[in-house]
Specification:
about 450 residues; two-stranded antiparallel ribbon; 22 helices; about 65% helix; mainly alpha; single chain; 2 strands; globular
Length: about 450
């Protein structure tokens, strides 16, 4: 019997073919991630009216741009403001100032801020895999930063309020378990950037301790501690308050009312005028439905959920309450004294605040957690039915896609101010700088004439 040699397929003999497969897979995945960030970035950006996209907000001009021009784009990153560091906002400001002419600064800052929000959403999708193995529930989580109802009100599209989105990202960084040194290094850098952008991340120290002790996950917890340490040094170097704020200046009942109205109520009704009318007409019944839904979701998860989901739900609810309480107690104002509001106060003084955005995001996270519990219990089948959950979530959040009235919708537009300032410098050679007004009123920034002339 004659033996015949059969040649092996060429790809089995070619070592380069074996190595090219993971490279190709990583390239495709990276391209998908970049595409997702781009799509979600534009989805966020188009929630803002055109005038808003071209208008600078407060610290974006008077602090971050001013420091970038005076100190330097990268040197200013380590400069504290109002008691803490602002790493990501200053980085975005530096990039926008470096790569574009000054008249495009506002538009580019607005767009890059939305890209950061999109990156937070995509990051949430991957980081939450430790709690949500199935992608449909992670997709629901990823929709929240981009579509949170109060986003366009004040926090979306400007760097001054990016820290609220980094606060949302922080717990997902802490629960993620990276693979290899590259993953650990990336997680450390991302957590350090978040912690040196938002000082309130200190509320996640218990979660960091749990991750460190129980899961032997060192990268994110150590970065969080390091970031908080740097923030404390910044506070000492540049105190936020001239004297220690009185923690009893806000009535506890007003803090509780505010949490229910702002963090819970804004999910259901993001229009402040409608909410005020409902309160005047129906009293506390105006927020009964969303409150029952939130409490019901929390109870359902804690009673029937697996251990990881129970911890996640309780921590989400606790983080929402802690974020609101910390923001309002440390920044007391008569606008937050809801327990003593009169009818006229409701009709003329009630509005939603940026402090409600992150708390409402944590409360919205209860929805995918409850869906995961329902799947574990067999209520949601392990088939196409569970893919309806993110679709329904997207539909619900999309109803308020344009709902919130942006604080910058009336300008003044940055390009108009730049042209006027450039004309002043050209008309008077003795001028060294010209002042450009931004929003809100009384905020402004002095721009050197050499910058206005095109650097």
């Amino acid at each position: 019997m004659k033996n015949t040699a059969v040649a092996a397929p060429s790809h089995r003999l070619d070592p380069e073919a074996k190595t090219s497969r993971p490279i190709r897979a990583h390239s495709i995945r990276a391209a998908g991630v970049l595409a997702a960030v781009a799509i979600l970035g534009f989805l966020s950006w188009f929630r803002l009216p055109e005038v808003t996209r071209g208008t600078l907000w407060a610290e974006d001009a008077a602090v971050f741009l001013a420091d970038t021009m005076s100190i330097g784009a990268w040197q200013s990153i380590a400069d504290p403001y109002a008691g803490y560091l602002h790493t990501i906002p200053r980085l975005v400001s530096g990039i926008a100032y470096t790569v574009a002419p000054i008249d495009a600064y506002a538009t580019l800052v607005s767009f890059l801020s939305c890209v950061v929000v999109a990156a937070v959403s995509v990051g949430t999708y991957f980081l939450s895999a430790q709690i949500f193995p199935h992608r449909s529930y992670r997709l629901m989580l990823a929709l929240i930063p981009v579509l949170v109802p109060l986003g366009p009100l004040e926090v979306l599209g400007n760097v001054a309020n990016l820290h609220w989105y980094l606060l949302w990202l922080c717990p997902w960084l802490l629960v993620y378990e990276p693979r290899g040194w590259t993953g650990r290094a990336g997680l450390f850098v991302a957590t350090l950037a978040a912690a040196t952008t938002e000082i309130i991340v200190g509320i996640f120290l218990p979660l960091a301790l749990w991750s460190l002790v129980k899961r032997r996950n060192y990268a994110a917890p150590l970065a969080l501690v390091a970031g908080i340490g740097l923030q404390l040094l910044a506070t000492v170097a540049d105190p936020r308050y001239a004297e220690t704020p009185r923690l009893d200046s806000m009535q506890p009942l007003s803090v509780i009312y505010g949490f229910i109205l702002q963090a819970v109520g804004s999910i259901w009704e993001p229009d402040a005028r409608t909410m005020a009318l409902n309160i005047v007409t129906f009293g506390g019944f105006a927020v009964v439905v969303p409150s029952i839904i939130v409490l019901g979701l929390l109870a359902y998860i804690t009673i029937y959920g697996r251990a990881s989901l129970k911890v996640a739900a309780l921590y989400a609810a606790g983080a929402a309450a802690a974020c609101w309480a910390a923001a309002t107690v440390l920044n007391p104002s008569p606008e937050f004294d809801f327990a003593n509001f009169s009818r006229d106060d409701w009709l003329s003084g009630f509005t939603f605040f940026r402090y409600a955005v992150t708390p409402s995001m944590f409360l919205l996270a209860l929805v995918p957690m409850a869906c995961a519990v329902a799947e574990d219990r067999g209520i949601i089948g392990r088939n196409r039915a569970r893919y309806l959950a993110p679709v329904l979530m997207a539909v619900f959040l999309s109803t308020s896609y344009f709902e919130a009235t942006p604080a910058r919708q009336t300008g003044p537009e940055w390009t108009t101010g730049v042209r006027a300032a450039a004309a002043q410098c050209a008309a008077d050679p003795s001028l060294t700088e010209a002042v450009i007004a931004v929003t809100p009123a009384t905020w402004q920034v002095a721009v050197p004439c050499w910058v206005l002339s095109g650097r």
